[in-house]
Specification:
This protein is of the alpha/beta class and 405 residues long. It contains 17 helices and 12 strands. Helices cover 43% and strands 13% of the residues. The longest helix is centred in the N-terminal third of the chain and has 25 residues, at 15-39. The protein is globular, with a radius of gyration of 23 Å.
């Protein structure tokens, strides 16, 4: 674990900078470890379940983005409980800590003790984890293995970005969207632990995305917003402003904006007041409902662009920043759009061959997703297989993903 964290630091910093940061982190971890020892619980109140869905944080749990999967499993008669992974400080304050049976260095005690508390409290047969890069993962896996249970890490997005969090790979099973995600994981130069990757598709994809083709005469653009962290960056702000300017110059186009679940969308709220053809969709409007109203989708940097392809909506990649096109839009939809003139040209070309672009959109979805709109059903099946102790290789394509680096 120390070596892994050192290598993560070296990916971004020089040797001296990495050493200083590592020393700082170790000192903080030791202090937290001392506090953890003082806050260990002697016992827990058990609330056993079959499946524990472990959200990355309490605020993530509140967004209810996994309700579609929760409902699917409960309708199949499975006892599913939800919990949120706690930060070291919160775990200590709330005494969500139980001494692990194995010896653990003081600097990692809080992760092991919180993992032990979760497993002993809920006693699941399968734990579904969603937190990328969590140092809790190896300890969750150990605590579950002692009970004959399994850790399933379920990707909530395509694993295409260069995020350092994707270097964590210590799971029993790693459910990913499709082959592009697998290849991106295989090409990483640093992976901690080993897992069995399962090509399962997206649990967010169900039959609601089997939409009839749109009428190109609808002339309705759906813009997929980025997360609140990205919205603060200059490149994304330029992109938003460029799209707003274009909408103001093309009043015959209806422009819908679908916000990221965590975004307040203040820019587009103001834009909707300025231009009558811009509409900020209600936060309760689902992606499938938004796609049903649109004829063309503008994707800046969102996994929702994959679902747009699944629904047969042509996609235009618009980004005025310097980001790498991790979704490979250019292989299917032409070059990245960086200004208003290029957006108009791309739209004109798209409308001249709308059905051809619909076909490309479906190919785009196939490139990133296995099982298409059956992703939710296949994810449910995978969880049920694990509950029965069955090897996923019987029903899914699986690949061993070893540690590297």
């Amino acid at each position: 674990m120390d070596r892994y964290r050192w290598k993560l630091l070296r990916e971004r910093h020089g040797r001296c900078g990495s050493l200083l940061r590592l020393v700082r982190d170790v000192l903080v971890d030791v202090v937290v470890g001392i506090r953890t020892k003082a806050c260990l619980s002697g016992s827990v109140v058990t609330t056993p379940c079959e499946v524990l869905l472990l959200h990355s944080a309490p605020k993530s749990m509140a967004l209810q983005r996994k309700n579609i999967l929760i409902d699917s499993l409960r309708k199949r008669g499975h006892h599913l409980a939800e919990a949120a992974l706690r930060s070291p400080s919160d775990a200590c304050a709330l005494r969500m800590l139980l001494a692990p049976p194995q010896s653990v260095p003081l600097r990692y005690l809080v992760y092991a003790a919180h993992a032990q508390w979760l497993v002993m409290t809920y006693q699941p047969k399968v734990l579904i984890n969603e937190r990328n890069g969590s140092l809790h993962a190896p300890f969750l896996r150990l605590a579950l293995a002692a009970r004959g249970a399994r850790l399933l890490h379920l990707a909530h997005a395509a694993t295409l970005e260069s995020s350092r969090r994707l270097a964590m790979n210590d799971f029993d099973y790693y459910g990913v969207f499709g082959r592009s995600s697998l290849v991106a994981l295989q090409e990483r130069t640093l992976r901690f632990g080993e897992s069995t990757v399962v090509l399962v598709g997206s649990y967010l994809a169900d039959e609601t995305y089997d939409l009839p083709p749109a009428d190109p005469a609808l002339q309705t653009l759906l813009i997929l917003g980025v997360g609140p962290d990205r919205e603060k960056e200059p490149g994304y702000q330029r992109t938003y402003q460029m799209l707003c300017n274009w909408a103001g110059q093309h009043p015959h186009y209806r422009v819908l904006f679908k916000r990221h679940p965590r975004s307040k969308a203040q820019f587009w709220s103001d834009a909707a007041l300025q231009f009558t053809n811009i509409e900020l969709l209600d936060i309760k409007c689902s992606l499938a409902q938004a796609l049903a109203q649109s004829s063309v989708v503008v994707n800046i940097m969102s996994n929702a662009g994959i679902e747009a392809g699944l629904a047969g909506r042509p996609v235009i990649h618009v980004n005025a920043g310097s980001d790498v096109d991790v979704f490979s839009h250019s292989l299917f939809f032409g070059p990245q759009v960086r200004n208003e003139q290029a957006l108009s040209r791309q739209l004109q070309m798209l409308e001249q061959d709308y059905q051809g672009q619909v076909a490309q959109a479906r190919r785009f979805a196939d490139y990133h997703l296995v099982h298409g709109s059956q992703g939710l059903a296949k994810t449910t099946q995978l969880v049920e297989n694990l509950l029965r102790g069955e090897d996923p290789r019987r029903d899914f394509e699986t690949i061993r993903l070893p540690a590297v680096g």
